[in-house]
Amino acid sequence: MCTGKCSKCIGVMLFPLAICAIISNLLLYFPNGQVLESNEITDLVWFFHGILGAGILVILPAFMMLGAAGGCCANRCGMLLSVFLAVLGVAGGAYCVTISSMGLIDGPLCDTGDGEYIYPFRNNTLKYNYLFNQTTWSICKKPENIVIWNIVLFSLLLGIGTVEAVLCLIQVINGFIGFICGTCMKRRKIDIAGM
């Protein structure tokens, strides 16, 4: 496969991942479909790791990859530019992975029944982490199902960020090869009749 086609393939795969990351991050603002006050939403959601990191910072390289591909044989300058933007995509994916991991470790902000929103699982001294001890999830009374809501969405963002970072890293290598060797090798037709 020529590097131009590989670039286009990676660019096409990044678009749905970036859209899913943006939607997942937006859903974290509305736990269980409820509209809450800003001080009742988990603080790590405000880092925009899905919107900015795995979303916008990945859509930009995806556009460039499609532009650099421009068919089978594109220019070397486009491939080099796609390398720099792919590095930006790697950073965006890594940022999303980092914040999502922290969100999973800290757990959600929730009301434990006394009307005050706290992080009951942050710096927890439980024998087992709350992620693997489902019986502790009942500590959070409001919003309903906030623990599973956060686990699913932060895990989804963690996975999306990882895949995006890997794809962008592949594009960095692919772009360098395309810049150095050209984006595609043209096949030469041999005129057998002329021999």
Describe this structure in words.
- The chain is mainly alpha-helical and 195 residues long.
- The protein has one domain (3-35, 43-121, 128-181).
- Helices cover 58% and strands 2% of the residues.
- The protein has helices at residues 3-27, 49-69, 76-106, 146-181; strands spanning 110-111, 117-118.
- The chain has a two-stranded antiparallel ribbon with strand order 1-2.
- Strand 1 and strand 2 form a beta hairpin.
- Helix 1 (3-27) runs antiparallel to helix 2, helix 2 runs antiparallel to helix 3 (76-106) and helix 3 packs antiparallel against helix 4.
- The longest helix has 36 residues, at 146-181.
- It is elongated and about 65 Å long.
- It starts with a helix and ends in a 14-residue tail after the last helix.
- The model is unreliable at 187-195 (pLDDT under 50).
Briefly characterize the structure.
By secondary structure, this protein is an all-alpha fold. It has 4 helices and 2 strands, in the order αααββα.
